[in-house]
Design brief:
By secondary structure, this protein is an alpha/beta fold. About 40% of the residues lie in helices and about 15% in strands. It is built from eleven helices and ten strands.
Length: about 375
């Protein structure tokens, strides 16, 4: 049953829940297990009046990450975004803030001026009319330029995603997949290998791992079909990254079966590089519409509450750490810091790891392995 609570009630619930957790001890995550989130939206939130608090104290969000035990962040890269955020300049600035707090960094190249996902993979406008050979070269040049810049300022990434959720390919139409069409698989492979070559050529003394990222967290059949094809094309990559949102990608059992099979089948380390779960379903008083604003696809026993969100996150962490061959290496929560500042509401704030007032939820500590 869904119900709405006012701001005072939310604060009271959060306080009671935090107090109750003080007597609990969370399992310590291994030191080499990477945990954190894609926090690319922080500059936009801050520019529009948003702020963050941890255990009652307002603080820089990267400081809060360190205090909670996080050791990993991801930044998405758009070529020439219309609002300027998530471009090279903002990414370099965020990387400095992350390094200051001892956080490892992953880069997520969309190869687009805006969002790229299975439903849309549009080339940057500047690359729109390039012939295929020059598109491959542009992929190499742009990737190497950004990674070189990261290294030059002393913030080398430890891993790089070439493409974001590329089940349907990337940089359409040249890199768009059309079933089993060998030409399209070959062209996608050329684009991927160009990006991976750029990463390896830029790395120098820094060992940077390369990742392929699909959205098939709970869909083993599609994941195996995809990776079998791309490996046949001799694409050279190190890591498998998956998105897993239960209301879109299947229940927890489906996710566990999938990652366990992929670990045994391909013998590559695996990260869940995107996940999310709502801590509330009620919309803001400003009238914003949530990405996840109803109970459709929600997991039984995991309500849309701070407790339900934390329980979900704990289960995902357990599944990753239990993968065969110890292949589960880390978890990135998607947009944990994308709260609604006063000047610019967002549709994602009920799935962030902060409440509507910018206070860190229990899941924030859980993700970092912090003890209460």
């Amino acid at each position: 049953m869904l119900f709405k609570v006012n701001r005072v009630s939310r604060r009271l619930i959060s306080t009671i829940f935090a107090t109750a957790l003080c007597g609990l001890s969370f399992a310590q995550l291994p030191n080499d297990f990477l945990r954190g989130g894609d926090v690319s939206e922080i500059p936009e939130v801050e520019a529009n009046g948003g702020h963050y608090s941890y255990h009652g104290k307002q603080e820089d969000p990267f400081v809060i990450m360190r205090q909670a035990g996080w050791n990993f962040v991801r930044f998405r890269i758009w070529n020439h975004p219309k609002d300027a955020y998530c471009d090279k300049q903002h990414t370099l600035a965020l990387a400095v803030r992350a390094k200051e707090q001892g956080l490892k960094i992953s880069l997520d190249f969309h190869y687009s001026d805006w969002w790229a996902d299975p439903g849309k993979q549009y080339k940057p406008a500047a690359w729109k009319d390039l012939p295929f050979e020059k598109l491959v070269q542009a992929t190499y040049d742009y990737t190497k330029d950004v990674v070189d810049a990261m290294i030059a300022q002393g913030t080398p990434p430890i891993m790089v995603q070439v493409g974001n959720e590329i089940l349907s390919g990337m940089m359409w139409p040249e890199g768009k997949l059309n079933g089993n069409d060998p030409k399209q698989w070959h062209q996608l492979a050329e684009l991927l290998n160009a990006g991976f070559r750029a990463v390896h050529d830029a790395q120098g003394a820094n060992r940077i791992q390369s990742m392929i990222h699909l959205d098939r967290g709970g869909d083993n059949k599609s994941a195996v079909w995809w990776f079998d094809h791309i490996l046949k094309e001799q694409v050279n990559f190190d890591l498998i990254g998956l998105s897993y949102y239960p209301f879109w990608h299947g229940d927890l059992n489906a996710m566990q079966s999938n990652v366990n099979d992929l670990a045994k089948r391909y013998h590559k380390d695996i990260y869940i590089v995107e996940t999310g779960y709502p801590w509330a379903l009620d919309a803001r008083s400003r009238g914003s519409v949530h990405v996840k604003g109803d109970s459709k696809g929600m997991l039984d026993g995991y309500p849309a509450s701070p407790e339900g969100q934390e329980k979900f996150l704990k289960k995902v962490l357990d599944i990753i750490q239990a993968m065969p061959e110890h292949r589960g290496k880390g978890l990135l929560y998607w947009a944990p810091t994308w709260i609604s500042p006063s000047k610019k509401p967002t549709a994602y704030d009920n799935m962030a790891l902060f409440d509507y007032n910018g206070n860190a939820l229990p899941s924030f500590d859980t993700l970092g392995g912090a003890h209460h």
